[in-house]
Amino acid sequence: xxxxxxxxxxxxxxxxxxxxxxxxxxxxxxxxxxxxxxxxxxxxxxxxxxxxxxxxxxxxxxxxxxxxxxxxxxxxxxxxxxxxxxxxxxxxxxxxxxxxxxxxxxxxxxxxxxxxxxxxxxxxxxxxxxxxxxxxxxxxxxxxxxxxxxxxxxxxxxxxxxxxxxxxxxxxxxxxxxxxxxxxxxxxxxxxxxxxxxxxxxxxxxxxxxxxxxxxxxxxxxxxxxxxxxxxxxxxxxxxxxxxxxxxxxxxxxxxxxxxxxxxxxxxxxxxxxxxxxxxxxxxxxxxxxxxxxxxxxxxxxxxxxxxxxxxxxxxxxxxxxxxxxxxxxxxxxxxxxxxxxxxxxxxxxxxxxxxxxxxxxxxxxxxxxxxxxxxxxxxxxxxxxxxxxxxxxxxxxxxxxxxxxxxxxxxxxxxxxxxxxxxx
Amino acid sequence: xxxxxxxxxxxxxxxxxxxxxxxxxxxxxxxxxxxxxxxxxxxxxxxxxxxxxxxxxxxxxxxxxxxxxxxxxxxxxxxxxxxxxxxxxxxxxxxxxxxxxxxxxxxxxxxxxxxxxxxxxxxxxxxxxxxxxxxxxxxxxxxxxxxxxxxxxxxxxxxxxxxxxxxxxxxxxxxxxxxxxxxxxxxxxxxxxxxxxxxxxxxxxxxxxxxxxxxxxxxxxxxxxxxxxxxxxxxxxxxxxxxxxxxxxxxxxxxxxxxxxxxxxxxxxxxxxxxxxxxxxxxxxxxxxxxxxxxxxxxxxxxxxxxxxxxxxxxxxxxxxxxxxxxxxxxxxxxxxxxxxxxxxxxxxxxxxxxxxxxxxxxxxxxxxxxxxxxxxxxxxxxxxxxxxxxxxxxxxxxxxxxxxxxxxxxxxxxxx
Lengths: 425, 417
Known about the structure:
The complex is a heterodimer.
Chain A: E1 2-5, E2 11-16, E3 22-29, H1 43-50, E4 73-78, E5 83-90, H2 94-106, H3 112-130, H4 133-145, H5 159-164, H6 167-177, E6 183-189, H7 193-204, E7 227-231, E8 239-245, H8 254-265, H9 286-292, E9 297-304, E10 312-319, H10 325-342, H11 346-362, H12 367-379, H13 389-395, H14 398-408, E11 414-419
Helix pairs in contact in A: 1-6, 2-7, 8-11, 8-14, 9-10, 10-14
Chain B: E1 6-9, E2 15-20, E3 26-33, H1 47-54, H2 64-73, E4 79-82, E5 87-94, H3 98-110, H4 116-134, H5 137-149, H6 164-169, H7 172-182, E6 188-194, H8 198-209, E7 232-237, E8 244-251, H9 260-271, H10 273-286, E9 290-297, E10 305-312, H11 317-334, H12 338-350, H13 352-355, H14 359-371, H15 378-387, H16 391-401, E11 408-413
Parallel strand pairs in B: 2-6, 7-11
Antiparallel strand pairs in B: 1-2, 3-5, 3-6, 4-5, 8-10, 8-11, 9-10
């Protein structure tokens, strides 16, 4: 992989992959919903939407088709630490992809009518999420688990903020954060590294750097007692989530917890963009056997995601029809407590490592996925650790997993959330 | 570069398609049998789906725990999927694990034992999934639409998961009988793509499937599909929800219809290109009414549906349906333009290398190729098939496919007439 930092502060990562005549370009910004203040929740995500609506040199009516004519696809996402945009297309489209991303960084239009029209699209997205009880519970659990850190509010934003935000709010946020010294450009595919860097310099080199961005410094205070919430809304199915404050990507216990999660619910890998598309290997795991095999839950899952600041390790279960949530919770907590007391076995450690070894291969099966991983980890705190991931996983010991479990899986560190459905009229 | 897969047929009739690719040290495996949900016996909807939940929970020689250990130890999970026509076991594994994983999949496909306790547990899971579907406006809208488009117990109109009543009533013996009647080497295709030579694939497949003996079952005859002649509108009130789902559709053509490519291009212009084609331009981009809106063409063995889907605020339901009507009317009356046709064509042809990048995507493509008999050189022929479509043909497809006076419209969500 080649890496360069331009004079304006833009970091560029290029990796040659000559397996298909394709290239994937991602532009990452160190801005996500944790950078939002009260009143502007959801602004990062709304800005992302606006950045698909034309620029000075890509008029609104020419957005459609700009990458499609190269057979390309495009997308973007916003989450708690990051906002990112991508195109994957024929390698011949590299210049076009870099042009699009440079325009997006410097020349967004933010037409007032488009801002207004997008308001209802985003509210529709929010309502679509609320249709899913599991997603609603996840949002409420996170809001309960955090009381100080802005990870507490959902990336989509709170409805009243979405209703009141103005075009100027959006535009000033865009101008502050969309600067080369707050971004990472990633190019992966059938390209020549030197040529790709030259092209990137041509498209981005003249963009002026922005001022220093004041970073959020709030740390979540240690949780001092179990928190609980119960959502009671009409529905057909009961859902349980238990969230524990967990270390960041660079935290001491991160890799041991990754092993712990594999033992509890199966290894997912580390690619937020693609891992969820492949079901985890989990039938021999502790929670699957305790809950699904015993007929208490129809589904169980664990989630430890790499983040810049300490986030949550979340365990979720869907109760089978007719099973009380209290029964599911009792068994789930019993399993977690047992793991905290006794740790995992050597056999579980070996299996978890084998699973993660395979998942890391599956995480990087396309130029799009490889590029995602480079940009994602650069954005949340340095890419240096990414190449060390296989070693970090291989080096984890049973004792380290035990220590991570004792530090994390405590009653006072957890938030328990129920979606306990009311009968539908 | 063309895919040029290697096709072999075992003595018992199992079709093997192998494609070597060194992108990653992994292998995608897709083993399918022509035993989709259309094989559900009358009155026992959901049988095939239930079989798919329990088929990998024990075989003549492996317990459920053995299978679980074997999968988990290799970091993989099987995806067992059921479509109208196919029952598939799909998995991506490390190349070093290819032979044992194929052996496991073959064992599961050929010799399920369906332990009674496993069946009881899986029934509980399926019933919970049906209850979740009942509370999901998107699922309710589409299932209601399909039941209206394919009435009178047509297999395309049935819920793949069945109902709580049918699932509760299905017995182990009935599932074993279903398996015995539909799963046979002559109905099976194994597609294997990845870091493994075709000769190794063939040898492994011969070892796994070579001794499987069972006569090929007869094809299941599908009832004729009636064309819609009048407009229908059905509301599924779900007042506990925040957003409504609209499903608006028609029956169209079969995959084997020579007009298929004209329909495909027409639909791409109408509801796919960029962010939902013309529908996306109008309903999301210009009017800001929906987070998602698009149309999908699912030409199948029999005449499949063209379905328009949108998620909208309850206050916007009427306006969204009216906008879909406007776009449908315009499509029929004025057709698409040469420029739109060319843009979609260029996109679809240009996207082929991207669509065939990963092992799993290639395996899926080859499976479709095999199922519909499109030819081993289909990826190479596809650009020419798309180039051959004229504007007149695409517009004739539009007039044939849609019309507001014969649309079936379903609204599921917090909305009442």
